[in-house]
Structure formats: structure tokens, C-alpha cells
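Working notes for the structural subgroup meeting. M.R. asked for a predicted model of this chain before we commit to crystallization trials. I am recording the input and output together here so anyone reviewing the notebook later can reproduce the run.

Input as submitted:
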Amino acid sequence: MADAPIRLKRRWLYIPFAVAAVIVAGYWLLWRAGAAEMKKGVADWVEDQRNAGFEVSHGALKAEGFPFFLRVHVATPEIAAPGVWRWRTERLTLDALPYDLNRLIFSVRSEQHVETADYGAWRVNADDFRFSIANDKARGWVFAMNVGDAHAVRDEDNANAAVEQLVFDLAPSAEDPAMLVLSLAAANIKAAAPDGAFRLNGVQTVMAATQTQALGDADRWRQAGGEFIINGFNAQLDEAKLSVAGTLSLDAARHPKGALKTEIVAPESFVKALSQLGLMSEEEADSAGAALTLAAIAGGGKISAPIEFNGGAAHLAGVKIFEMEN
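Returned structure, recorded in C-alpha cell form:
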């Protein structure tokens, strides 16, 4: 009879293991359900894009990561807007928490191939290439991107571009769902082509666009009172520094109009960059750079004046810095 209480005590020792087994089994079922939901989400997204006119294809879907996270690999994904652009890679990875699918993280480690009608075919490689889409109670949704040590090369002429670090966030405003707010920071941006080269040490900006429900049509957006708000744009090129803030809209000819408060140190470097981007000729850049350098000297080493946009042209301190083609 004395053995009975001992056996009962031993049985109590097994209860925690039984509870743990139930928890693990429940978590496994939750993980499996999450994996199935992610795969279904991929299939639904593909169907939506096809219905919208895009070409989409992919290979096998494979889930892994139990128990710490939920990961789905998408083999050989490819998406295209026929005749406009095409993107493909060997593998796209989706990550999420099994118990919270409100935030999905996408990452690519294989070489990416991008083809565009206007800019040719490019090969892109990056040590870090991630973007995420998340639900947000205040703003509805948030899109975020992180890129590290990315390099792109164009097949036809070996034109190339690179960025050391890029952080990009886009989301509706919490106060106005029709306003999109973008924040961006990038370091060591470089580009080179047979006809020139361009670089920036760094750029940081916070911008917003209003009346985004009409953004697909420039005239409709203008008539709705759409504005492009630059809360701050800061760029650096060696010793040259540029800071811009203000609001722009569109005129009847779809050209930007408005004025941007500007402070610029060593303006000649930025004027040359505009020339390298094809916004002005070398002769125009030399003339504008010389005039703005004199204005900066007169201003104690910097220019503090608005960039004025009117009639398709932009002027800084009375000097035309670029003009849009009609």
C-alpha cells in the first residue's frame, strides 16, 4: 500500500511534459495553418496581378523555419508588364511570424534581372535586399525597403549603378489617408554610363503627395489640387551640400510650379550633377555653375534663395538650372 502514493507522485512528474507536448502540437498546427495561408496568399496575389494585366509565373512553393519563424520560398518568380518592364530571379523568400501574418518580409539573395523598354536589361546583385508590407492601425499599411551594397550592370554597354545603403518607407498619412508620405535615406550612390557618370555621398528626404486617389492621371491630380510636399531634402557631394523644402504642384502644361526654399554650399558640384543627369548641357552647366559660385561667394560661401519653378524651367538666384522638354 505504501507504493501507491509514490506512484501517484511519479505521475505528477509527467504532467508538465504532457502539457509541453500539447503546446508543441498546437504550435505545430498553428505553424502549418500559417504556411498554408501564406501559400494561399501568394496564389491569390498572382491571380489578382494576372487579372490586372500583368504576366506572372513561379515555380514550387516550399515552407520551412519551424518552430522559430515561418518562411516560404518561391522558386523562379517572374512578373512583367508586357512591353514595359520585366523582373525575374531564382528565388524569392517570404518571412512571417506564424501567429501574426500582418507583416510579411520579402527578401532576395539571388541575382535579379530587370528589363525595361526605355533603359535596357540590367543584372542586379545585393548583399541585402529586403522589403516588407505590414498592416498598421493608424495608417492602414506600411511599405518598407532595406538595400545594402547593391550593384546593377546593364547588359548592352556595361553601364552600372551602385548604392551602399538604402532605407525607404512609404505609407499613407495617419491624418489624411489620401496623402502618401515617403522617407528615404541613401549613402554612396554612384552611376556610370558611356556618356557620363553621377554620384552622391548621401541623400535624406521626407516627402509627401496629396490627393493620391487621382495620381494615375496628371490632369485629374492637378484639378483635384494635388501637391508634392518636400518637408526636407538634404544631399551631399564631397564638400557641396544642398537643403531644399517647399511645395510644388502642376500647371496646365503638366510642368511643376512653385518655389522651394533652398540653401546650397559649393553649388557648382550640383550643377555638374544636373548636367550628368542630362537636365542641361555641359555649356549650360559651366555657365550656371560659374554664376552660382559668384552668388555663393557674395553670400558668404552659400546661397540662400528659393528655387522657382515656372513655365517648365527652374531658376535659382536668377540662374536657370534646368528646363523641361515640351
